[in-house]
Amino acid sequence: ATPKALMVGTGRGAQLGILIKGPELLESTRRVDTVVLDKTGTVTTGQMRLRDVVPAEGESADDVLLLAAAVEDASEHPVARAVATGARERLVATPGAEHPLPAMADFANSEGLGVRGVVTAEGVPHDVVVGRASFVEGSGTAVPDELATAMRRAEESGGTAVVVAWDGAARGVLVVADAVKPTSAEAITRLRGLGLHPVLLTGDNAATARAVGAEVGVAPDDVIAEVLPADKVDVVKRLQAEGRVVAMVGDGVNDAAALAQADLGLAMGTGTDVAIEASDLTLVRGDLRVAADAIRLSRRTLATIK
Ligand code: ADP
Ligand code: MG
């Protein structure tokens, strides 16, 4: 490869809004045949909002939201941000509620699963757990059918539902959702146009992931869901072991290892520093269509070199 032609590639890349770490990496993009796309923050905006509070029978929706938010306030996870913000928006207007979130102690975060903490409300401490149904069940708390049904319904429409439990009983379900980016479906069409095979990868549940896949044109068979943060890298390795040359697009801390493992790592410029550092390319504006541009550009640049 002549450095000059590659420099042209990088200059054009900058115009398109692609930051390229080193010209040598462009070599590896030529044989890419599979593009693994993180869901939250990559295909979707990542700006989750609280959509619904479903209390279990006999529970108050406000209590469910309040106690959950008291714990989630200590987490940076997009689900947690949506819950804490939603609680402030909905409950801050309550007369006399100067400090809408009760005190919380003994916070513990289980990456990709959920959170727990002791929340003191009206002088009574409660052991609160918020997270995936499997996480709450793992703590010894059953999720009743009425809540499981509410979760399934929310997930089938692309939402993410988490269980709120305290003192050993499931008290309700919170539904959060973010929107698919308006550019994502077109981006996936463009990737297919380049002969690439898109795969959607997420820690979120399968029903939510499939609903998002359907919205952007990724078939259910190409949706890999409920993958723990530490296991995303194994999915990339498995695809590589099958002989695929993998580009990975992601934005989160939980994508960093997979981005580094991929033959080509592309980070959303709107994402975390950890993801950007682990990647070969950064899509400055966080527009997924530019991932297709980046791969096309690098192929064309290599063609001019040969
Ligand atoms: P993604 O791969 O989509 O970025 P994560 O692996 O970070 O998702 O999280 C997977 C799932 O774990 C979430 O969809 C949610 O159900 C649960 N979860 C993780 N963190 C939290 C939290 N702070 N509060 C509630 N649920 C959580
Ligand atoms: Mg993400």
Automatic annotation (TrEMBL):
The keyword Zinc does not apply. It comes from the Bacteria. It is found in: Cell membrane. Keywords: ATP-binding, Cell membrane, Membrane, Metal-binding, Nucleotide-binding, Translocase, Transmembrane, Transmembrane helix. The keyword Translocase applies. Its main location: membrane. Belongs to the cation transport ATPase (P-type) (TC 3.A.3) family. Type IB subfamily. This is Heavy metal translocating P-type ATPase. It comes from Terrabacter terrigena. The chain holds residues 441 to 746 of 801 of the full protein.
